[in-house]
Amino acid sequence: METITIKDIARALNLSTSTVSRALRNSYEINTETKKLVLEYAEKMNYRPNPIALSLRDSKSKSIGVILPEIANNFFSQLINGIESIAYNMGYHVVIFQSHESYEREVANTNYLVSRKVDGLLVSLSSLTTDISHFEELLDKGLPIVFFDRVPKKVETHKIVADNFGGSYQATEHLIKTGKRKIAHITSPIYLSITMERLAGYKKALEDNGIPFDESYVKYCHHGGMVVSENEAAVQELLDMDEVPDAIFTASDRITTGCLSVLHRKHIRIPDEIAIVGFTNIGVAELLNPPLTAVVQPAMDMGNQATELLIKLIEHPKKPTIFESRSLKTSLIIRESTAGKIVNVS
């Protein structure tokens, strides 16, 4: 099928090419009726802007760089779908790099994307990133960057996150309502934004229900779940405690699956001996044995909103006076890994 052009649209609607071009850019110079006519016809004919022509006209590459920890993760793959759906419809290509939880790879990926003259970056920090000067320098030079999921606290730009505190609070409170009192938490490095927020929600739920916080029940996986031996060691440390937890709240997909693997190998009955809740978007949660109770993040919507904000920065280069930090609501899906009679906790 041949690609439709602005000239084709103009010919079909008996308009000038400049009028069609301005209508597609939502220019104030074009009246509402003409814009509606052009946009509806363009959608009907599956018109897509020519990125090469746009880059020549605007001196832009019409490409967006994305740096995230890994693609083989259901949360990030859903998020990428959200990014690409918005970018494609607005005439941008997406170039994706994985840091694999490595600070050095994150820096190398950033340098390469900048050398390829991407128009902006969407970034979720690696679990080993404590120095963000490579991003601060780019922001100072005017490169648009939007952070999502794992975000730096002290950088002035748009940020999109899930409600990590609320999701963790809800998950922990659910475990308490099923009668659990010795609730452990396995999470990522303490300096990550998601770790601090999820830990805070967990601690607040314990406090509100009269359960003392015990630091020994919190285990940190410094590679964010990427290293299997690290995940397994964290679970084993909990199983070796004098008072073994009766529930575990895990903070990511890989930590969750690693935890389940160890418990199954040890023939520990879930949820009778230890209940499990994951902060995860794992696609097969309901197919696991037992089906996993999980906090689910609105990954697709996070990708949509982050991309919309980035493209707005790219196409309106004047620095905004106020940057947005959006926190999107999570949901708790209750399945058999925490099944039990709901009890009132005084």
Automatic annotation (TrEMBL):
Q: Which InterPro entries match?
A: HTH_LacI, LacI/GalR-like_sensor, Lambda_DNA-bd_dom_sf, Peripla_BP_I
User: Which residue numbers delimit the HTH lacI-type domain?
Assistant: 4-58
Q: What is the lineage of its organism?
A: Bacteria, Pseudomonadati, Bacteroidota, Cytophagia, Cytophagales
Keyword Coiled coil (UniProt):
no
Q: Which GO terms describe its molecular function?
A: DNA-binding transcription factor activity; transcription cis-regulatory region binding
> Keyword annotations for this protein?
DNA-binding, Transcription, Transcription regulation
SMART domains assigned: HTH_LACI
Q: What is this protein called?
A: LacI family transcriptional regulator
